[in-house]
Specification:
With 515 residues, the chain is mainly alpha-helical. The protein has two domains: 419 residues, MFS general substrate transporter like domains (Growth Hormone, Chain: A, Up-down Bundle), CATH 1.20.1250.20; 56 residues. The chain has 18 helices and no strands. Helix 1 runs antiparallel to helix 5 and helix 1 packs antiparallel against helix 8. The chain is globular.
């Protein structure tokens, strides 16, 4: 590309990667504001809503390690484009899902959930390439800044998703939250072919680890399914108990396979490096804590506070603006100061934000939500950018694809399990509150009957009030658990992330070679 100066090519590369990354990460949260509308149009239950979100994050997490291997083996630019193509086509299928009756003989919701799962596969193939392309394009002294832009783009997409989803849902229809990906995806593929140089791992023999893929995928799916469906099917039912056992057994099998595979999907020697372990655990915990916020707070502001989809999306704007502003600075400071205390401070702010969110009520005003939005908008990028920089600084350049895949796998696992776990907590608590209210009313009816008084059945308004109270009580419990998880991540960052990046970059290379 002649009009791109070679000295500036890395910045063009970063721009192209960020463009595709934005679209992929947007789909983590753009769906959340549209959920109440989709629930009404497709007549969905809460568990089906959870599956629409987690089908994407689950396959994203399950396939991302293979995506990293493919990027290193076949070429990072190639897999970036393959992932974009899969993602773009599956977005079209998602948008057409409620017309499924005229296309295929299955229910619309199954088509939608299936297409979301395929979207996750496309994202899993593409995401490792984005970070490994950035890592190989920039020298160590600029890598933290570039990764800060990468993380800021991801954070901005996550934060702006609710607003864009609300506007598209209210002004057009929920289908457009998927259709909008199509022109963006096509443009990203064209630009990437022009400005991104091809690169791959040529250090030694490469191969795909299919047994590792099957066992890790089975474990994640079994655990997520059990968490989402446990409240409805019964936590002690044979199916749910069996799924928890299956999740544990297949995860043990995965670890054993990776220990003894000649060319494993997950390179376990990376887990001997404290900075890498600390970084990926923080990435998992921040996703575990925060993904549920976008999901459940979107339902809260629309179903409880009565916000329109656009207003619901706009309510996240303070967080959006702060994520966009803070992330690049956090990446830059991580180059100069190291990541440890930036990560710990960021997670502390996230924990405070989640605690404030857990104080919402039936009549909370927007001014009551604003402090949590502001604190969370500062804390999230303070944790995310340095976490990514610290993790990737420990990985040799020729293993950037796998390192990126491990990091993002943990992030997506956190997101999947966060929605499933917090959904289970919320469903259990809400059910208990609703049952207690029902039992109290029945006791009142019996006492009145004993005195010859006949009480009428609860009105629709009274039933709705009980349902709203149960939802809010369940939300309190879920967000309090999220806050505890975030504060736990503060300890993980403080204890495990020890060194500054440039002090150990060479040591990491030697450690990886000797492992």
């Amino acid at each position: 590309m002649r009009f791109v100066n070679e000295s500036n090519r890395k910045w063009w590369t970063l721009g192209a990667v960020a463009f595709g990354l934005f679209m992929i990460m947007l789909d983590n949260t753009i769906v959340t504001v549209a959920l109440p509308t989709m629930k009404r149009d497709l007549r969905l239950g809460i568990s089906e809503l959870e599956w629409i979100v987690t089908a994407y994050t689950l396959t994203f997490a399950a396939f991302i390690l293979i995506g990293g291997k493919l990027a290193d083996l076949l070429g990072r630019r190639l897999m970036f484009n393959v992932g974009l193509a899969i993602f773009t086509l599956s977005s079209l299928a998602c948008g057409l899902a409620d017309h499924a009756g005229s296309l295929v003989d299955v229910r619309a919701v199954k088509v939608l959930i299936g297409a979301r799962a395929v979207q996750g596969v496309g994202a899993a193939i593409m995401i490792p390439s984005t970070l490994s392309i950035v890592t190989t394009a920039f020298p160590p002294r600029q890598r933290g800044t570039a990764i800060g832009v990468w993380a800021g783009t991801a954070g901005m997409a996550l934060a702006i998703g609710p607003l864009l989803g609300g506007i598209l849902t209210q002004q057009l229809s929920w289908h457009w939250i998927f259709f909008v990906n199509i022109p963006v995806g096509v443009l990203a593929m064209v630009v990437s072919r022009i400005v991104i140089p091809e690169s791959r791992d040529t250090s030694h023999e490469q191969s795909l680890d299919l047994p590792g893929l099957l066992t890790s995928g089975a474990s994640l799916f079994a655990l997520t399914y059990a968490l989402i469906e446990g409240n409805g099917k019964g936590w002690t039912s044979p199916l749910i108990v069996g799924l928890f056992v299956l999740a544990g057994v297949t995860m043990i099998a995965f670890v054993l396979l990776e220990l003894y595979q000649r060319l494993p999907m997950l390179e376990l020697p990376l887990f001997r490096i404290g900075n890498f372990v600390g970084s990926i655990l923080v990435a998992l915990l921040v996703s575990l804590a925060m993904f549920g916020v976008f999901f459940f707070m979107s339902l809260y502001v629309q179903n409880i506070l009565g916000y329109s989809p656009t207003r619901a999306g706009a309510s996240f704007l303070p967080m959006t603006v702060l994520v966009i502003f803070v992330a690049p600075f956090a990446g830059r400071f991580s180059d100069r100061l190291g990541s440890r205390w930036l990560m710990a401070s960021g997670m502390a702010l996230v924990g405070i934000s989640l605690y404030l969110f857990s104080r919402v009520g039936l009549h909370t005003t927007y001014s009551g939500l604003l402090p949590a939005m502001i604190i969370g908008g500062i804390g999230m990028p303070m944790a995310m950018s340095p976490t990514t920089a610290a993790a990737m600084a420990t990985v040799p350049a020729d293993k950037a694809g796998v390192g990126s895949a491990v990091l993002n796998s943990f992030r997506q696992i956190g997101g999947s399990l966060g929605i499933a776990l917090l959904g289970a907590i919320m469903a259990s608590r809400s059910s208990n509150v609703a049952n207690a209210a029902q039992a109290s009313y029945e006791m009142t009816v019996r006492k009145a009957a004993a005195q010859g008084i006949h009480l009428p059945q609860p009105t629709a308004e009274q039933k709705l009030a009980i349902a709203h109270k149960a939802f809010v009580e369940g939300l309190h419990s879920a967000l309090q658990v999220s806050a505890v998880i975030a504060f736990g991540a503060v300890l993980v960052a403080a204890v495990l992330v020890r060194k500054r990046h440039h002090e150990h970059a060479e040591d990491t290379q030697l450690a990886a070679e000797s492992a």
